[in-house]
Amino acid sequence: MGELYALDFDGVICDSCGESSLSALKAAKVRWPGLFDGVDSTTENWIIDQMHTVRPVVETGYENVLLVRLLLESRTPTIRKSSFLCQVAEGLTVEGILENWSKLKPIIMEEWDEKRDDLIDLFGKVRDEWLEQDFATWIGANRLYPGVSDALKFASSRVYIVTTKQSRFADALLRELAGVTIPPERIYGLGTGPKVEVLKQLQKKPEHQGLTLHFVEDRLATLKNVIKEPELDQWNLYLGNWGYNTQKEREEAAAIPRIHVLELSNFSKKLK
């Protein structure tokens, strides 16, 4: 019997936090130029630094753009345009964002009059421009986790990428950083539907009957969504403890029987 691995990308294969934070900062300046007038490099560096801490809350890339503005407004209350931010000011600490992001996000989207699709388009456009103008720097702002490149190259299992990243960016990074080409039909990127639906599609494919199914993800919330679907009971679920998750989430995952908390070295061994 063979093995099938469905792998998340950001936080499992690639540490893209440096690139996504810089892209989000560029996008935020395009979206809200007035707010960033006079913002100095010290503040920008502070925002990028904090983005590494709040990264576990991000499900889809465009949320990084919202987080950049939220961090800016938390750092410089004088520029707050939004009345609601005074009401939820205690949620504006980094800890507050980690705890309350699912509640904060819809409030700020409404308050700032933002649309999800517009922000996705903007974030993708900013990345495309960076990629076209300075490919080497864009690639260099990402890194693969140690051992992952070899594990992908020599994988004996059937590997699929299931990510909320736009497929073209995942493909470019796999080629450039891992030296691996994964056929486009095996990369399920942003726009291919929720991950639970992708997993259902994968398990139904005739060529996958009889394979042992594994799903590796770094977001606990995503794994919990899989557990809610009885149809997906045959998937083995793993939380990558090297990815974008908190100690609290890792402890919670360890207490859930369906979820195996996975070390990076064991992940690389499993793929091979």
Structural description of this entry:
It contains 14 helices and eight strands. Helices cover 53% and strands 11% of the residues. It folds into two domains: 3-15 and 143-271, HAD superfamily/HAD-like (Rossmann fold), CATH 3.40.50.1000; 17-136, no CATH class. It has 272 residues and is of the alpha/beta class. It has helices spanning 17-31, 33-36, 41-54, 63-75, 83-87, 94-111, 116-133, 135-140, 148-153, 167-178, 195-204, 220-227, 247-254, 264-271; strands spanning 3-7, 14-15, 143-144, 158-162, 187-188, 212-217, 236-240, 259-262. The model has no long low-confidence stretch (mean pLDDT 94). The chain has a six-stranded parallel β-sheet with strand order 5-4-1-6-7-8, with helices on both faces. Strand 4 (158-162), helix 10 and strand 5 form a beta-alpha-beta unit. The longest helix has 18 residues, at 94-111.
